[in-house]
Amino acid sequence: MDQLRVALVQQASALEPEANRRLLAELTPTDADLVVFPEAFARDFGEAGSDVSAHAEPLDGPFATEVARLAAERRTTIVAGMFEPGADPGRPFNTLVVRGGAEAAYRKIHLYDSFGYRESDRLTAGPLEPTVVDVQGWRVGLMTCYDLRFPELARALVDRGAEVLVVPAAWVAGPRKVEHWRTLLRARAIENTVFVAAAGQPGPRYSGHSLVVDPLGDVLAEAGDDDQALSVTLERAVLDEARRTNPSLANRRL
What are the catalytic residues? Predict the structure, then answer.
């Protein structure tokens, strides 16, 4: 397809999983090819350092099942964050579940051991397997939050054909954090000549500012701090022109 209709849902997840499943139904549109919810949407992280293992669900559990049902009902592909049991019962995976026109599970590779947090104390890092799915003829690469700070993952996704990078996040608020978020999203788009679509949880705890960036770094849409939905149509002609204008992928020597 020459176009991809993308919806970003910037919405806070609650501590009650049932409430978040209801939000999925309320907020999934009927006119998008790809719908992106934030990281940890099945159940919020809770207080810093909280044990989330009791809220981990298998990929055929209530949350992923509801994601699949809604994707089928609304003829779309949905990406949303959840916690998934791993080999260590006390340290689940931070997982993006993809259901609908594509089906996948991406387990966050880079855990947030930074800015005073220790995500690895409570979660298990995923395998080093960059994940790319096909959505309506577009190649979509998956990243989660802190993964954004590691350009080698974005490049690995592009080497696997990614034309769009999707970044669900719960980007913790704080000094410089919005500036970092916007700068890194635009950098990943520019250096890889790809679209970037990032859906974050809103303030006050998180940074909000969900963004869609085109392959030359122009911001196509941006949310503020509060609950908000964005809808953008990506154009393949824009991607092709960007890669002709800036053939940096073809010019690589390392």
Answer: 39, 108, 145
